[in-house]
Structures are given as C-alpha cells and as structure tokens.
Amino acid sequence: MGAAALPILIFTGFWGVVGIVLPFILPKGPDRGVQQLVLMMTAATCYLFWLCCYMAQMNPLVGPKLNQHTILIMAREWGNLIQ
What is the pTM of this model? Predict the structure, then answer.
C-alpha cells in the first residue's frame, strides 16, 4: 500500500493557503507580525503532524498480537483451516 496523491495534494494545498496566503491578507494592526507568525507556525506544525501520521500508516511498525487460540478460530471461520 502506497501513499495516495490526492490526500497529500489536498492537505498540502490547505496548509499552504493557511501558512502562505493568509498571513498576507491579514488586516493592518499593531500585532500583525505576531498573527502572521502564528499562522505560519500553526500551518507548518499541523502539516508536519498530519504528514507523519499519514506516512506512519504506510508501513506500520506495530501489528496486532493474537494468541494461538484466536488465530485458529480465525482460520476456521475464514475457511483456511490449518492442519
């Protein structure tokens, strides 16, 4: 299973708008620089968090741990009985 292009493009575009476009259209004010920094940092950290979570699903390091009884029941129910 590989990464699908559509979710990556959608989320990259969304966080790109939040971090690149929105800081330029903020209204003038005494704390405009702080608001711009907040938007850029929020976009960067949220995007990286989402990307790490998304990519962790491509090759999970932890799988289910089943005991032998459960595995035998699953094999019997799914029709590939182990003999």
Answer: 0.69
